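Batch job 17 of 40 flagged for manual review because the log was empty.
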Amino acid sequence: MFDPDYDLFLAIMEAGSISAAARSRGMSTAALSKRLVRLEERLSARLINRTTRRLALTPAGTDLYAALLPLRTSLKAAEERISGRHTLIRGPLRVSAPTSFGRMHVVPALPDFLARYPEIHLSIDLSDEFTDLLNGSYDLAIRIGARIGNGLVGHRLGGSLRVLCAAPSYLALTGEPMTLEDLGSHCLLGTATQLPWQLDGPEGTITYGGSSRVTTNSSEVVRELALGGCGIALRSLWDVTEALRHGALRRVLRQYQGSQEVGIYAVHAPTPTVPVRFKAFIDHLADHFRSNGSLD
């Protein structure tokens, strides 16, 4: 059984405050504070520095937090295996996904998933901000990139071919670039973290520097600016296939594409055994993308 004081310590860190953790556990703030003090006395170490504005882990608290997270996950997985609950897929599942990809490709897969697993309590957040999977706030994150992050486990769901494209209205004004060097006289569009571009072409993999005409953290803003004729963007086919098909965007410099190392992954913190509700969601997404050709 997981030590109840350790469990409360994790609850405090995940809730962000003693009062919030106390509310979630149906306890008074004073009672939970006493339990924290008792744990610190037992370990002969201060775990959390308390201020009126925030909580901050001490070095000892950081070490304990890092040790407890995988231990709690392992214990939960062992309980499921031993008790036989692995045959019933249920419980909370907290998922994070990039805004545009989540809206276009993850959310459409959810109705069938929820119908198939009615006892899973799903929470899904769409955001282009980085999600820290090691702090316990989320169970799974959908990530698009060449790397999944140190200390994490990734399940590849598909590729993410990216192409250079622009609106016909933009190309009518500026002309179409014929060589990579021609991009120097064009307006480029990308999120704050996308440029410089990693491109695969006749010369192999190269890095093309440059800055975006508009600074933004949103990939959806980049797509809309490209559609509006503001410049050339490097966009995933899952994002712009329809626009290319209907002529709202045109590919340029077809001999170049985004690095083929980039893929779409379902990512989670390391566990001795992947919880069955994680696996159910990952397998469902993979089947959905494959049957719908969503990532072709």
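Reviewer: the log was empty due to a logging misconfiguration, but the result itself is present. The mean pLDDT is 87. Unflagging and moving on to job 18.
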